[in-house]
Design a protein that fits this description.
Elements (H helix, E strand, L loop, with lengths): L4 H23 L6 H8 L13 H27 L6 H9 L13 H5 L8 H21 L8 H18 L3 H18 L7
Helix pairs in contact: 1-2, 1-3, 3-4, 3-6, 4-8, 6-7, 7-8
């Protein structure tokens, strides 16, 4: 059965967004060129406006796609660890601060990749960015034991900052040590069973 025009258009759209999602994480918002994204996706620059009203519209969708990627990775780690006694919080920390994100800037959390740029974006991109920050804090909050949920924004800041700092050091023993120390510390400090009543 041949794909319909609408399904081909949707696949094209998704391909462009996926390429842009990797680009914003590896080069930042400012480093995303419509022409480069379209070329890498395998399409002509002229086809861009059949899919997006503006570059900002693409950036908003790319941010959403990148956020889904890291959420899916955390869910995958949780599934893999099911039955081992690992808590949702431990799985989230291990997925977020995985060594694989040191050298792969195009993957991982878009907030860690873009936080410093977010306040300088257009209103639409800034609002989408703020929404993703709130979603990350909410995901951390829901993974924490109830008695520690008030610390969600502090822990989120620790996750984001740790990944940024480790990436600044590089994909080497020093960068991996920063990630490892943070993983161990966050789990030790915040992944404790609720006290019995």
């Amino acid at each position: 059965m041949k794909p319909t025009f609408n399904s081909r258009k949707r696949e094209t759209h998704e391909r462009i967004v996926d390429v842009a999602a990797h680009a914003i994480r590896s080069r930042g918002y400012a480093g995303v060129s419509v022409a480069e994204v379209m070329k890498k996706a395998g399409f002509t620059h002229g086809g861009f406006y059949a899919h997006f009203e503006s570059r900002d519209a693409l950036l908003v969708e790319a941010l959403d796609c990148a956020s889904r990627d890291i959420a899916a990775e955390a869910a995958r780690v949780t599934r893999l660890r099911a039955g081992t006694g690992a808590s949702e919080f431990r799985c989230l920390v291990e997925a977020y601060l995985a060594d694989q994100y040191l050298g792969a800037l195009e993957n991982g959390c878009p907030i860690a990749a873009l936080a410093a740029e977010m306040p300088r974006q257009s209103r639409a991109v800034r609002e989408a960015s703020i929404a993703k920050v709130h979603q990350l804090v909410a995901a951390v909050r829901s993974a924490l034991p109830e008695s520690r949920r008030a610390m969600a924004s502090v822990i989120t800041g620790a996750l984001v900052g740790t990944l940024q700092l480790a990436r600044a050091l590089g994909d080497n023993p020093k960068g991996r040590e920063v990630l490892s120390t943070a993983r161990e510390s966050l789990i030790q400090l915040f992944d404790m069973p609720e006290p019995a009543h």
